[in-house]
Amino acid sequence: MLKNKKLEVFFITVGSAFEWFDYIVYISLSSYLSSVFFPDTTAKKGLLLIFLIFSIAYLARPIGGIVLGAMSDKFGRKKTFLISTSLMAVATLGIACLPSYFYAGAASFILLLFFRLIQAFSVGGEYTTGVAYLSEKSINRRGFISSFFIFSTIFGVLLAFLFTSWMKNYFSHDEIVSWAWRIPFFISFVFIVLMLLWGKIKQIFQMNFFQMMLMQLYI
Questions:
Q1: In the list 37, 126, 136, 185, which could disulfide-bond 109, CB 3.0-4.6 Å?
Q2: Which domain holds residue 185?
Q3: Contact predicate 25/185, CB 8 Å
Q4: pLDDT at 65
């Protein structure tokens, strides 16, 4: 039982870290993203438009907190946290696969805003349900267990800045604008999916043989 609880804390911590990783990567690469999605404007105007998208999407965070928070009360913290993490994975993959303005025109930054809204909605819900779930998992060490969620937030932010700093030193400006800006979003998507799959596989293997036979009979 204790091992299962540690695994759950680990999954939520890692999942939350990579949700914030996605969020901060956008800010750190904003000057490059402005060249990808607003190449026909000046550098300052393009940067302002990128941050405008960030600001508009930020409004979805409290909405996500309210909607997913209410869902967690009705359907459970763990299930709602998985929903918010899955939404973040889908939005992150969507951003990684976005065409540039050169190929899609205005549709490129409209889609960017759409996926950023999903990310913000997800982060808002993930924060409320994650803290509630971790605090409810431990009666005797509630403060300590809940602190892992705050740690995951800071770790995700730090990891994003470190990774994007490495990118800026390793790749040229043209390489980042052309294709390398997609790398952190793809990496984050892979890690989030691996965490979701690993949790599901662990859940399956923790069932005893009798439970699995019953499942087979009712499928």
A1: 37
A2: 2-218
A3: yes
A4: 84
Q: What is the pLDDT of residue 43?
A: 85
Angle at 103 between CA 40 and CA 38, to 5 degrees: 25
Looking at residue 172, its pLDDT comes to 94
User: Are the C-beta atoms of 85 and 19 separated by less than 8 Å?
Assistant: yes
CATH code of 115's domain: 1.20.1250.20
Q: Can you give the pLDDT at residue 66?
A: 87
Single-letter amino acid code for the residue at 187: I
Environment class of 10 (CB within 10 Å of its CB; exposed 0-12, middle 13-18, buried 19+):
middle
Query: Can you tell me the distance from the alpha carbon of 197 to that of 191, in angstroms, rounded to the nearest whole number?
Result: 10
Both tokens of 57, joined, read 């999407």
DSSP-derived secondary structure for 23-44: HHHHHHTHHHHHHHH-TTS-HH
Q: Could you state, in chain order, the average pLDDT of each consecutive group of 10 residues for the chain (219 residues)?
A: 60 76 88 93 91 89 86 80 84 94 93 93 76 68 73 88 94 94 93 74 44 40
